[in-house]
Structures
1.
Amino acid sequence: RGYVSGRSRWPTREFSFPAGPSRERVVIAEAEGGEVAGMLALVRINARQYDLARVELEAAAKEAPRHWLVEEALGYLAWHRSDWQRAQEHLRQAVARAPNPAPRLLWNAGRVDQFGGLRSPESAELLVRAMRARPQWMEPRIALAEQHLLRNQPSESLALLERAPPVTPRYAARFHRATGFSEAMLGRADAARRALDRAREYESNAFD
């Protein structure tokens, strides 16, 4: 039985500009070439200004090799078009070229397989790296558990979930749903029912 997460498909990107009107200009002024284009394009993408992001990337996308920020931005633009193969290629190039890939980049590069049905072996490694970089963050752990389910590996999925830090309400529905599917695939009907009931409780509370 297939397992598909109910979470949004849109990749999220964190920006670290401190408050103040001049900081972004200083950061960009200190950068050069494709780095500037990548920064500006990511800001546009974060604001859902996709056409403007493409304009920012027009010249930088022709460079070889591309800056890793350009690869990341191109990956998110491909993601927006549901071009999963291209998104995967760009995001993994960004991971390979970034000096210290952020956990969220690792997470997006790993979880794109879940939407594209690509099933590449590297996706699990990327999610593990994201999980290790930020151990208390539930997203990569749940995404990795969901990938194990898609690969018919319920024992691996359940082992990850059992080692999870305390689950906040934001992630509780997905966490218990993944737990329930894992238990069901292992033939433990009562445990599966309890977990899926808890998932439904959290889902219904989200709309109260």
2.
Amino acid sequence: GPSGSAPATRPPQSAYASLPWKTFKDDFSSTSTGWPQVSDANHMVGYSEGAMYGMALSKPGREAGAVIPHGFGSPLNESELHFTVRPVEGTGYFGVLCDYVDKSNQVVVAVTDGTYAIGRFFNGQYTSLLSSFWVQDAHIRAENDEFQVWLHCGDTIQLMVNGYSLPIVNNPNRIKGNVAVFIHSHKDLGPDPVFNYQVLIDDLELKAR
């Protein structure tokens, strides 16, 4: 279907089906929609030229992120998130934090070319929800230098990248929380690049209940 449409294989009937969906959309044409704007020696997040939201890291092995300013309150029972990611420079991975309480309690859904990961921090201990820490899949790749990401997060987790659906994963014994986007930088690229890893995000839509 068109980009942003839900995959053909839907998660099982939701325990929250009786609750109404709330929707937050942002095309980043306005810089007053509540996203964090922070810049220091290690990272930068904020509204970017061309009506997008940028996240960048200047050193390897670092992370930067932003809780989506949806205004629905937290915790969320379940969410469906769609957004476009355009990697600009450097190497790393990007993704979504759902059931986000803090860095010690969160579900991490991470994507990079040819690879993805889904796991959970519980009281600071990380456990993969997949068969291995990273799972390789050649279907996960940029199209026109972009990734279209669709993610369902609730009692189950389902990830779709550029229309390619990955297997549904159970998310047992949840601690419900919020939803955020994030990036993580890989190896040091030396002094030449301005950023070790930089991405732009656009056309974000969050449905939550």
3.
Amino acid sequence: EFMDMIRITLAYKWVILSIFAFSILVSYYKTITSKPEWRATTALLIRESATDPSSFVFDFGASSSQQRLKNEIQVIESYSLHSEIVKSMIETGLANESSLFGTRYIRKRYRAISWFTNWLMSEESLNSQHVEELDNLTRNEFIGITKKLGNSVRVIAIRETDVLKVSVNAADSTDAVLLTNLLANKYRNLDIAGGRSEIQFVLSFLD
């Protein structure tokens, strides 16, 4: 049987070598042309306000903590929160230089293709094309950017705690940190506003 395997290998050696060489070339090409991906992570402590009037009316026990974490995860991963981030980036000008909007030029890992691209067109002209397009974003383009942000967001609940681990992936390290901070701040502001409206609702209910 061993001799049969050797005989078959020798008979199809060029086919085997061709497949092996092709696999090496594909792997090498993807390596030198791939863009790096960065991840920034933050932790959010989710806790019920001590002044929440509902705590004097309802008592759901320990299970309410886990349910509250699930609810907050849905909020952080929601399209509405991500769309608010996209809107604020456009309004403040942060979108003018961001990999999320395609306005920050990200070099390939080993710059094999970038050398040729830069020879044809400068980085400034590449960015300026996208900046001009931001003023005329269509609804579908806005939705596409928002979904792109949503796909880069990951939220994990840390076991036996009220802490959520939130991370955002981006093609640029600066953008990863910026998007993570924007997400945390937007969520914090939304949480504060939501808490106030809940208090007003419960108080009016009690009256």
